[in-house]
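Pasting as-is:
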Amino acid sequence: KGISLLQQESKNESMVVTLLDAETESKVSAAQAKLGKSVYVGYPFLQEAKVVRVSDELFDYTLDSSGNIKMEEHTPKQIENWKRKADRIEKQYSRKLGIVIGDVESMVHVDMLKGLIKTDKGSTIKEFLSIEGQETDYGTQTIVDEVQSPDPRFLEQDARPLEQEFPLGSKAFFVGTAFYGRPAMVVSHQPDDRVGLNILALKRREPDFAKAIVRRAQNETRYVPSWQVSRMLQLHPLALSKITSAMSVEVNGLKLNMGLNLKFESRKQKVLGYSRKSESGWEYSPKAIELIQSYMITFPEFIAGISLRPSGDVYKDTDFYPPDTVQEKMKAILTWLKTIQSKSFEQVPLEAEQLDSDVVAELHAAAKQYIESGGDAQEQYIMKNIPRHALLNPSDADKRIGGQRFELGDRVVYVLDSGKVPIARKGTVVGITLSTRQTWLDVLFDHAFMGGTTLGQRCEPFHGASIPSHSVLNVTDPQIVAQSRAGVTRQPVQQPVHSPQGNRNDGPPGVNGRSGYVPAGVPPPLRGSFSIRPIDY
């Protein structure tokens, strides 16, 4: 008895698990042996993690650069917090999970397994990071060192032979400096882990039309803080808050929503193009202010009734109009709200960055004009001596490009060979939504495809898609650029300083007995990173 489940203690006897050798396993010496190692935490629901720090009541223990254990003494406040956390861990197991772990004498602090990353040499290794919102402190005796059946999705692997990873005729994306993000086909295998490519490149460089449109739209749309809107409209702040959210009014015994639905505090959502929330509070766009003004002008008695009692929780229709006209007036308000389509506004999370339908339409028109003018015309090139790491295999996208940064207006290319978007399809980022583990992008693609959507009525049918960030390459801001030998040689080199008199190592003497050699300037950039030759077909 006494096990608390769903906030209610069990009334009958419960089976309780007791950890063996808990007293020995909880010693700080046992915890120190795990520093820097991969373990499994969260027993009985195990997740892989890496131990980055160990602590007991008095000290923190970490590894220095030489692999030796370094101690750091706790302050009185840290000692108090450590004891509180140790008690919480013990009670969590005993009261909620029915597991007796004994006293917590030491804790391990971990980075959780995020996933796999691929190195430049082709091997796959695990990546451990601190994940926001996830517990990272565990009692040492609850740590599991090994499991019998590791998850096959997260097994490290040595590099495969080049011929297996990129067989002749296989498709990939080039991530060198010359034609970043362009699709390519492997046509030959060469020594020193290199390949020859047939690459499909644009005849002329794409203009930066998307960023210009986004910057102009952001400069033209100035959001105004709610307190300033309240003062501007001479409206009580609480009345403004009620009008712009979902507000219930009792009409004939039914509760009807008569708010503008421009913000949703409890759901942590805003309305695209109308509202947003900053550190100082809610803010409204000129379109939202115009809509609020229209509501005030069209139904002044209704707004005045709210202003007289702005802190009220429940309103009745008779609070605003006399009984003989109340039915007609309430019906008129509901009809007006329906005409402005307030319930069809695009609701997005507060942390999301998204462009409204007007800007998306302008981006679509610009992309269409660019294509119709022949801007996406292509030609083929042969590229030789390309290193393995300058190729992106579509199956390795989540392991290589998951950490990219994105901004609204970035041009991207879809690099997966699966999913609803055709491979190598190009588009523009019109929305960014962050989740705990990954970033989701709303992309407006240049060409229609069968799996495309309207992005919540923001774009034309079959042109939009919400996709994870690891499925596209950011070609506006290249971040996975592979360096070549030519690129390395272009790096500035510190030139030697010669004495005026010269010496026997300076070569032939120059004028007035000075050295004939002088420091040379940095050569101009080469064309691309690798040798390039057009193919004749």
